[in-house]
Each structure stands twice: as structure tokens, then as C-alpha cells.
Amino acid sequence: MLTFVSHQVASAIERKRNEEALQRSEGRYRSLIHSAVFGIFRATLDGRFLDVNPALVSMLGYSSPAQVLALNVQSDVFVDDQAKAALQRSFLRRGGFEGVEVRWRCKDGGIITVRLSGRGVRDEREGAEVLEVIAEDVTERRLLEDQLRQAQKMEAVGTLAGGVAHDFNNLLTVISGYSQILMEQNTGNSQLSSSVEQIFHAADRAAALTRQLLAFSRRQMLQPQVVSLNRLIGNVERMLQPLLGERIAIEIHAARDLGTVKADPGQLEHIVMNLAVNARDAMQKGGTISIQTANVDLGEDFVRTHPGATPGRYVMFSVTDSGTGMDTKTPWLTSSNPSSPPRNPARAPAWDSPPSTVS
After folding, report:
1. What pLDDT, in 10s, does the model give residues 131-173?
2. Burial level of 56, CB count in 10 A (0-12/13-18/19+)?
């Protein structure tokens, strides 16, 4: 009797130890799953969620696992039927899938790209085979890759533009040279001399365009020189109107006593062109672009609210438009009056150099 009782007690103790060891193992397993940065879930073959970890709940934009468990992964989460069918074919052929990218729909309607890896396992509770899947959100990675590819395309375009601009500049040099020779040889023929002069001016404007292409391709050395901003803007205005179209009017408000600045003329032209094109994009139905120049004095109050600025006399030019602008939630550069945002914060005034003093 005592021997029988001792065996029963020993078996009970051993069983209790095994149960405690199993509970500790399951606890470590659940802790590992719950702290994972990747989404992990178990689902039936027809798409019913069985278990989900917090990372998956956060990935889909829900606030609790119960909300996700009420979804069907096939009808409520998957966006593309083709991707869903591809996963099913892979599972039927190999019993699992690895590194398959699909698109999922979040709670707010947003679309994310996830990479799925999973396998089929037998579940005693369900009495059937279920899927154990790991989901990695690769949306931001794909966005960065797309941006990199776009940057590489732009670099290729810039290289091509630089090469074409160099060759074209050589042709313009020949045209300008022969135009000058013809003007010198025909000083007595005013009509012919005037026609040749127009050819020379057209070649000069074309050379300005090639400088912009070279600046765009970063193949032009910077050549700072003392320039009049009013005269430069006047030259750019002739090129802007065909670029902006008839629906957009250009207004120039130039200060008569404007100081000079020391800068690369090609770079300044590039800045004006970029600001004008940016303003055009904000006026799909037409409008007005206003370019203004003025002499300004930056005081200590302005410097305190604009890190990097130094007090002194400056030449200012600004580009504003009658477009839609930004909403109040979008960050914008503050003006000299922080309580009064500009009409179009995306194109806040740009500050240049003190007159004739600092480059």
C-alpha cells in the first residue's frame, strides 16, 4: 500500500514539475512573440485570425488584439486578389512561403507593403492545419528605394544635360563670334547690322540657358561676381513667360536704389526659375506671380528668431503667388512677423547678401 502511494505521489510531483516547466516555456514563448518587432499571427486556411501579437495590431492601426481577431485576413486585410492567390498556390506547392510581398489595408484605409513568410502546422484545437506567419512592414523601405531610383534618374538626366549643354555652348561660341565679325564688317549698313545684332543677342540668351543646364548638372564652376539683381530678374522674366504659360501673369516690383550683390549669376537665375515654377504648380487654374526686390535692414529682433542670420544691410528678393498655399498644420518658415504668416508659406521671402559688401 505504501509503495503504491509513494509511486502515485512521485508521479504527481513529476507531472506537476512538467506542467510548471511547460508553463514557463509557454511564458517565454509568449513573451518572445509579444516583444517581437515583426507582426506574427496564426490563421486558418480560410483567413480567420486565431492569434496575433501587439506588433501586428500596431501595424494594422488597431488599438487592441480583439479588433484584429474579428477581421478576416483574406477579405478585410489583403488588397490584391492576385497576391492572395499567389500565396495560396505557393502554400499548396511547398507547404509554406517566404519573402512574398503583398499590400495590406489598415484601419484608416491606408495601404502598406508587407513581406510575409509562413508555414502550415497542425493545430489540435482547430483539428486542422493552420498558418503561422511573420509579417514585416517594408513600406518605408520601398519608398526610400523608389526615391533612390528617382535620384539616380535625375543624376543621369543631369549628366546628359551637362554633356549636351557643353556641346551646344561650343556651337553658340561660333555663332556669337561670327556675329561680332559681321557687325564689325557692316557698320555702315544699319539694317544688316541690326539683324546681325539680334542674332548675337539670341545667342547670348541661349548661352544663359546653357549656363542653367550646366548649373543643374553641377558641372559648372561657381563664378561669383557683382551683379544687379534687378537686371538679372529682368533677363529671367523674358524666359519665364513662355515657361509659365498665358494663364499666369508676372508682376515685377523692383526697388530703384537696389544694392548690388556678389554671387554667381547662373545660380541666381536658377533660384528664380525654381521659385517661379514652384509657384506655377500651386496655380493650376492660373494666377499671378509677383517678384519683388528691396533693400532691408535686419535688426536684433529678426536675428533672435532666425538662427544663422546676422544683423546688417541686405538685398531681399521674394517670390509670391496667388495659389492655394499650405494648410495651417504644415510647418512653414516664419517671416519677420511670426503672428502673420505669408500668403503662401511655401514661398517665404529669400534673403540674399548685404549690398556690395558680403558675398
Report:
1. 889 999 998 888 888 888 888 887 787 777 777 777 887 888 8
2. buried
